[in-house]
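[Discussion] Sanity-checking designs against the backbone

I'm trying to build intuition for which residues belong where. Below is a structure token string of 216 positions. I'd appreciate it if someone posts a full sequence so I can compare it with mine line by line.
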């Protein structure tokens, strides 16, 4: 028996076979053969971060002193020409005491170490201390402040910024204040006792103008 071949059916079957044969055999453009084709492409090298300019601390300090001088021109005139550079220190700093007890005391009180002041910083601090002392002595004819609130009002009226714990005490002979000279420093600490004592000093190395309350 002979089977009749349909030309249209034959063409359709051939097209289907070609489509099945080609499925899954398409290579990505540029893919090679053998080991080269199986190797993973290498990662691109990381981009180097752009250089960030360093902070110019000297310029910041100079700008702070300039702002201070605009606030207190009389003190700026008094301290004009003073150096803003720390004095040169010996290459080998002095060691701790050799006596065991004295050495232990020095180590335990190291937390009270204060930052060194430049000649200009020392001048500013002493000038502000004298300015405050004169105001306390005069106090506009009202006498010395008798409460922490009166002392705070006097100091803020003179242009000093105070935080909540910077003025404390309970009476006219037991008032204390601690402040940082606006913009440039240093610290000024005052005690309204008998006699009144006001002094300028560097910030404590463990932070701020207040003396740390504890040792190592």
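Best answer:
Here's mine. Compare freely.
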């Amino acid at each position: 028996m002979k089977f009749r071949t349909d030309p249209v059916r034959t063409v359709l079957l051939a097209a289907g076979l070609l489509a099945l044969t080609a499925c899954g055999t398409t290579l990505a453009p540029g893919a090679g053969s053998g080991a080269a084709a199986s190797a993973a492409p290498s990662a691109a090298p990381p981009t180097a971060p752009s250089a960030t300019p360093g902070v110019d601390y000297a310029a910041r300090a100079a700008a702070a002193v300039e702002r201070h001088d605009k606030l207190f021109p009389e003190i700026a005139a008094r301290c004009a020409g003073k150096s803003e550079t720390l004095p040169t220190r010996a290459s080998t700093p002095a060691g701790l005491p050799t006596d065991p007890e004295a050495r232990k005391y020095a180590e335990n009180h190291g937390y009270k170490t204060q930052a060194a002041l430049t000649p200009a910083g020392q001048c500013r601090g002493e000038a502000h201390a004298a300015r405050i002392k004169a105001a306390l002595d005069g106090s506009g004819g009202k006498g010395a402040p008798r409460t922490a609130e009166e002392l705070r009002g006097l100091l803020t009226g003179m242009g000093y910024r105070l935080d909540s714990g910077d003025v404390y005490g309970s009476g006219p002979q037991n008032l204390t204040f601690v402040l940082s000279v606006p913009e440039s420093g240093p610290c000024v600490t005052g005690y309204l006792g008998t006699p009144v004592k006001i002094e300028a000093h560097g910030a404590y190395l463990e932070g701020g103008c207040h003396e740390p309350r504890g040792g190592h």
